[in-house]
């Protein structure tokens, strides 16, 4: 009797084990069958990311190889850090690096406050049609290509018949060749960058400003606070998280410095002040076929960018309790 | 109180003046370039007539010259094609990828999202991508202008955020009725997605229309070059022999032809600008809230 019960129990356990196993398989199969269409939907995008985003990361190993077109990425011989040594011992690269950092720094110190100021001013405007018009006008340049902006600039700033130089001359000044004078190149670069993006970058601050509770402003008014005081003590602190996020994201682009714009506007006369990492990579790699050296610079740039973003986010997490990005 | 009112008025006045000046800084260059493209040399070099030219001096000769030669109209057509075809592909692939990633029960959601996010932090750089496009035999093909940027990680995440914000009850109700994932997507989600498709579609379209560097890298034959490339060449060329017919070249000065080319390149953007402004603003905010 006892053994029979025991056997029965054992058989029961076997059956239920088999049953569980069957259930697992069945569940997995059923899930796959049910989600089949989801896998199919994701597939093209997944292939895209693997081929066009991840394969180039693998291809970046040519930075440590002597890339030869005939032997391909895998076949080319390894050379270790030779290209990096070559880059960092080159005085021209040092110059390119300092140009990049300087242009980025100018963009940071002038380009970040400008749209904040615009948003704060727009937020004070009570006349709706005026506010709307200013927004419509200042957003527009954002949608134009850098080529169009370059066209407008080169026509306006032309040293022979440009409007700006005509104004300078009629005011008694001397003509300036803005786009080929090393003293002016960076100024033109940063100023035109702000001109193009100021309205657009203000949108995100405007949204943050409208999210601030009106009760705060009303309470401040009751206390007799002036308009400027309210801007300083309510509006500005209210948008600080957004300011931090924007600053952090632009820090990650420290070594980019606005490639397309520089590429269009620079010329050999201003290489000394305007040649940046990306333009140099383009000329070395694609025009002079020094693929490996150029790829090494690209890897250097990518790694520094990654480190900057991760570090800044870590710092933000440490001091404010939460990361700005993740 | 009266004192406060006075200082308030001064404050408002200062802000209005600054903002008006900022608008002028945008409007003046455009207006000047329009005038330049429409008038002969002696009108726009004269400060008195540069901004308000006499109407009888206005001529469309510059536009006629540019539009009757083959170069610019051809490039315009290429750009229209790339923008329409490219944006369609961008939207289809982004949409199909974003929807499963918005579903909590999709098994590979987290690893795929992580994979996408990582591309925002690190990339292989220009050179490996260039080598890849060359190895895929895409040089001098329109595909080289479309495939390398097929899905933008930002746009994908914005679209995914949109799907996540749709009320879950809609999906659950359809599921209870026995609808499959595909039926839910096709019959319930897609009809609600028109605003996000418009926004993301415009993001992609503006990018296609404005991009030029990919064409510099990958396009070699003159007849495949998009508008921005031809405009750049035209702005940097010492003469217009390559861009307008030789016999009519003398009609308009070089700078007027350049101004006309700039206007031709920006007019399509100006036409869609009202739609852009509406949808773009939404997209930016959606992206920033979730980003």
Highest-level CATH class of the largest domain in chain A: Mainly Alpha
Contiguous uncertain segments of 5+ residues of chain B: none
* Structural class based on helices, strands and sheet pairing of chain B: mainly alpha
Instruction: Round the mean pLDDT of chain B to the nearest integer and report it.
Output: 88
The CATH superfamily of the largest domain in chain A is identified as MetI-like
Which structural class fits the helix and strand makeup of chain A? mainly alpha
- Helical segment tally of chain B? 15
Which oligomerization state do the chains in this entry correspond to?
heterodimer
CATH superfamily of the largest domain in chain B: MetI-like
CATH topology of the largest domain in chain B: MetI-like fold
- The CATH architecture of the largest domain in chain B can be given as Orthogonal Bundle
Describe the structure.
The complex is a heterodimer of chains A (326) and B (291). Chain A has 326 residues and is an all-alpha fold. Chain A has two domains: 74 residues, no CATH class; 231 residues, MetI-like (MetI-like fold, Orthogonal Bundle), CATH 1.10.3720.10. In chain A, α4 packs across α9, α6 packs across α9 and α9 crosses α11. The radius of gyration of chain B is 25 Å and the shape is globular. In chain B, α9 crosses α15. By secondary structure, chain B is mainly α. The mean pLDDT of chain B is 88. The two termini of chain B are 45 Å apart. Helices cover 74% and strands 0% of the residues of chain B.
């Amino acid at each position: 009797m006892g053994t029979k019960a025991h056997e029965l129990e054992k058989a029961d356990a076997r059956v239920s084990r088999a049953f569980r196993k069957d259930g697992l398989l069945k569940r997995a199969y059923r899930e796959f069958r049910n989600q089949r269409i989801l896998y199919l939907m994701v597939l093209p995008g997944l292939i895209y990311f693997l081929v066009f985003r991840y394969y180039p990361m693998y291809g970046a190993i040519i930075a440590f190889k002597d890339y030869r077109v005939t032997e391909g990425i895998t076949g080319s011989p390894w050379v270790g850090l030779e290209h990096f040594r070559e880059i960092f011992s080159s005085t021209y690269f040092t110059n390119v690096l300092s140009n990049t950092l300087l242009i980025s720094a100018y963009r940071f110190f002038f380009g970040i406050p400008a749209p904040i100021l615009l948003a704060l001013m727009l937020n004070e405007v009570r006349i709706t049609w005026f506010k709307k018009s200013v927004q419509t006008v200042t957003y527009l340049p954002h949608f134009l290509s850098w080529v169009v902006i370059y066209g407008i600039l080169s026509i306006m700033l032309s040293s022979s018949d440009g409007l700006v130089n005509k104004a300078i001359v009629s005011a008694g000044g001397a003509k300036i060749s803005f786009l080929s004078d090393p003293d002016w190149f960076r100024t033109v670069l940063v100023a035109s960058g702000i001109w193009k993006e100021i309205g657009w970058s203000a949108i995100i601050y405007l949204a943050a400003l409208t999210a601030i509770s009106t009760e705060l402003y009303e309470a401040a008014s009751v206390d007799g606070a002036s308009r400027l005081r309210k801007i300083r003590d309510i509006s500005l602190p209210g948008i600080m998280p957004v300011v931090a996020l924007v600053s952090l994201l632009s820090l990650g682009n420290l070594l980019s410095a606005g490639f397309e714009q520089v590429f269009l506007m620079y010329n050999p006369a201003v290489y000394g002040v305007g040649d940046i990492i990306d333009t140099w990579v383009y000329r070395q790699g694609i025009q002079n076929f020094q693929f490996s050296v150029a790829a090494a610079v690209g890897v250097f740039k990518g790694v520094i960018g990654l480190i900057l973003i991760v570090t800044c986010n870590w710092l933000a997490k440490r001091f404010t309790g939460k990361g700005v990005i993740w | 109180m009266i004192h406060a009112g006075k200082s308030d008025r001064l404050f408002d006045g200062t802000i209005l003046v600054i903002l008006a000046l900022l608008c002028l800084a945008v409007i003046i260059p455009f207006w000047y370039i329009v005038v330049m493209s429409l008038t002969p040399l002696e009108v726009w070099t004269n400060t008195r007539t540069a901004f308000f030219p006499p109407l009888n001096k206005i001529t469309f000769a510059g536009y006629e010259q540019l539009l009757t030669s083959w170069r610019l109209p051809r490039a315009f057509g290429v750009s229209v094609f790339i923008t329409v075809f490219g944006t369609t592909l961008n939207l289809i692939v982004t949409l199909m990828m974003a929807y499963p990633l918005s579903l909590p029960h999709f098994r590979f959601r987290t690893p795929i999202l992580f994979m996408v996010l990582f591309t925002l932090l690190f990339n292989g750089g220009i050179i490996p991508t260039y080598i890849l496009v060359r190895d895929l035999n895409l040089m001098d093909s329109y595909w080289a202008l479309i495939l390398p940027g097929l899905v933008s990680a930002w746009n994908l995440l914005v679209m995914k955020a949109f799907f996540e914000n749709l009320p879950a009850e809609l999906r659950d109700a359809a599921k209870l009725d026995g609808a499959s994932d595909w039926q839910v997507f096709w019959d319930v989600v897609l009809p609600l997605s028109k605003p996000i498709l418009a926004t993301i579609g415009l993001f992609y379209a503006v990018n296609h229309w404005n991009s030029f560097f990919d064409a510099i890298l990958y396009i070699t034959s003159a007849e495949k070059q998009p508008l921005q490339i031809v405009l750049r060449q035209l702005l940097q060329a010492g003469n217009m022999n390559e861009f307008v017919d030789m016999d009519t070249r003398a009609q308009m000065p070089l700078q007027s032809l350049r101004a006309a080319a700039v206007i031709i390149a920006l007019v399509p953007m100006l036409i869609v600008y009202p739609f852009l402004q509406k949808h773009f603003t939404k997209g930016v905010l959606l992206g920033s809230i979730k980003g």
